[in-house]
Design a protein that fits this description.
heterodimer, A: alpha+beta, three-stranded antiparallel beta sheet, 3 helices, 40% helix, 14% strand, B: alpha+beta, five-stranded mixed beta sheet
């Protein structure tokens, strides 16, 4: 028994530090995988969230509702921002609201045009363009420049639908 | 003696156990790595499927309200809606094209209008070959028709339409052209249409070669909507 104990001590001494090295070997790839999951998941979450925000803005737009003294475009943008769950800033320049006629669905009707673009039967397109994704773990794995400062990618999402009828008693809505 | 025996046992055990952890890790990896890939592919496809359904619905909403998807401009709207999914519509064209479906990319969109032909509709045609059948009134396709899911060419679940169509996709002789018959339509209507009633069907196919792992081919996402 004594002999075994002595051998064990020797083995322990010989193995000293191995666990720490093995832990480090395991930790590095594990952390890389973990941060990868965080970043990919957050990218997917961002994409889904702003896509849903654009869609809700579009659903709001087709009803010709407005908020307070805002025109229709600003009201729609406000709805998109609200559904953006903090990813989109108030009055974000990334949010776009465009109107098209069904006959020319790729030529946006500018604000102030006559006849106006936001009339029943026209197409409304709500989009969030070039939304910059952000890293949750901006670690670059280089010593010289350890943190990433740039966005990994931009996302653009679109939603469009046909404008419904004006609410009762309303004959036009300002943009 | 004891020391010597213990030492020998220890050496023997070390020798026997050498490489065991690596084998265990390999066995563990055989199970875990495919599971990890499967989780990633399935999770990603789930999110994509939701997005694809929304794109399809947006296109359908506009289609039933009169947006003519046989024009290039309307197809550009669809391409913008499907941005990030690889819907390519090729170079610009003037007027209408019923089939703009050889452009590469990963998406194919097929819009169909079907009608049930009863005795009333047939009154003006003699003979009325397609009486008491569903027929295609119009069909427009754009994107890339030859995309494949798991190696299988995609196709409409309504069946293949072979009738002669105009540049706008309208079937020329829907009452008499047997190629206009929609063989599978009745399968998909919970309430069958009556004479002269029409329905709009939008089908979209989204292939995803980027997520194709040999053991877990992602296939693609098919989504359809009846309006």
């Amino acid at each position: 028994m004594n002999g075994s104990a002595k051998v064990s001590v020797r083995r322990r001494r010989q193995s000293g530090g191995n666990t720490f090295i093995e832990w480090m070997f395991t930790l590095l790839p594990s952390m890389a995988i973990l941060t990868f999951f965080f970043d990919v998941s957050f990218a997917m979450f961002s994409w889904g969230t702003i896509q849903n925000a654009a869609r809700e803005g579009c659903r709001y737009a087709i009803t010709f509702q407005t908020s307070g003294t805002n025109g229709q475009d600003a009201s729609v943008a406000q709805v998109v921002q609200q559904y953006g769950m903090g990813l989109l800033a108030t009055n974000s320049p990334l949010i776009h609201v465009n109107y098209f006629t069904p006959a020319a669905p790729n030529t946006a009707i500018p604000a102030g045009a006559s006849p106006a673009g936001n009339v029943p039967g026209n197409i409304v397109e709500v989009s969030v363009q070039a939304y910059p994704l952000t890293w949750m773990f901006p670690i670059s794995s280089t010593i010289a420049n350890p943190f990433r400062s740039t966005s990994p990618a931009n996302i653009s999402v679109y939603s469009s639908d046909i404008l419904g009828g004006f609410p009762a008693g309303v004959v036009s809505v300002s943009r | 003696m004891t020391n010597s025996l213990s030492s020998r046992i220890s050496v023997r055990r070390r020798t026997r156990q050498g490489g065991n952890e690596m084998i265990e890790f390999a066995l563990f990896s055989v199970l875990m790595i495919p599971l990890l890939i499967w989780t990633f592919v399935s999770g990603f496809n789930l999110v994509r499927m939701i997005e694809c359904q929304e794109i399809n619905r947006d296109i359908g909403n506009q289609y039933i309200h009169g947006v003519d998807y046989s024009t290039y401009q309307a197809q550009q709207v669809a391409a913008r809606l499907a941005s990030g999914f690889g819907l390519q519509i090729g170079a610009t064209f003037a007027g209408n094209e019923a089939s703009n479906s050889s452009n590469g990319g990963n998406v194919y969109v097929l819009l169909s209008q079907v009608m049930y032909v009863g005795a009333g509709t047939c009154a003006s045609a003699n003979p009325c070959t397609n009486q008491n059948k569903y027929v295609f009134v119009r069909q427009v396709g754009f994107g890339e028709q030859t995309i494949k899911f798991n190696g299988v060419q995609v196709g409409s679940k309504l069946g293949n339409m072979t009738a002669t169509v105009s540049s706008g996709g309208y079937v020329q002789n829907m009452l008499t052209d047997t190629g206009a018959v929609c063989a599978n339509c009745s399968t998909y209507f919970t309430t069958q249409l009556t004479d002269g009633q029409t329905a709009y069907v939008v089908e979209s196919f989204f292939a995803d070669p980027g997520l194709n792992f040999s053991a877990y081919p992602s296939g693609g996402i098919y989504t359809s909507i009846f309006l």
